[in-house]
């Protein structure tokens, strides 16, 4: 009886220690799993443009005596794929910095109306060159604390997406308003819209609703996860809803004084 009791205790203590170690290991295993998935996705995204560039270069090498004009198609494709690689590596670096919390922030008191006028202006010309209209709605006079470079990057992502997923002849509107101790930056488009069941997932790394369409427009599925990170560095939030009668509306809500509690960035939201 004694031997059996000892054996049962022994088994129980082994079971307990396995269970305890699983509990302590779980977050480590989870983050390790996330890292592995991230590296896998990144490698996959890098491989496609690299393979295309390699194929095009090999094609060029098979016809060394052709004039450049006759090789223009291959050169143009290799060039656009190398631009895609450049954008991808920039985005991957931004996310790596967000994971290691090593980004240097520079929060400044900013006159929002001036800042928006200055940042939206260059995109107006790009939109016009694509047959689309970009408008900045009148903004009331208020100041907010922000890292201007990061908010500029956020606007770049939202406006770029609004243009990518909208047809010619449509209008994209940027507006901002005060809501108590917070302010909202709103980017509205009349484009293809996002189904309700996709609206949460589009902020996930590498997630694209339609990957072939996104690829055609130069997308890599990282823009909105970077946007989400920038917003969380400012202790704000970002959400998307449907625009009526068609399109999407991205609403970013930021505190007027975003510089407080700087180091409490919550990575679980990325
Ligand atoms: P991508 O580089 O593919 O655009 P993002 O992370 O910026 O990556 O966006 C993720 C996905 O969300 C896009 O692939 C697209 O399917 C969808 N999306 C983002 N913005 C819009 C928009 N304004 N209208 C419609 N779909 C959008």
Automatic annotation (TrEMBL):
- Please identify the protein, giving its name as recorded: histidine kinase
Question: Coiled coil where?
Answer: none
Give the enzyme's main class according to its UniProt record, as a single word.
transferase
User: Membrane-spanning regions, if any?
Assistant: 1-20
Q: Which UniProt keywords apply?
A: Kinase, Membrane, Phosphoprotein, Transferase, Transmembrane, Transmembrane helix, Two-component regulatory system
Complete protein: which residues are present? 178 to 447 of 447
- Reaction(s) catalysed by this chain's protein: ATP + protein L-histidine = ADP + protein N-phospho-L-histidine
Task: Enumerate the subcellular locations listed in this protein's record, separating them with semicolons.
Answer: Membrane
Q: Which organism is it from?
A: Levilactobacillus tongjiangensis
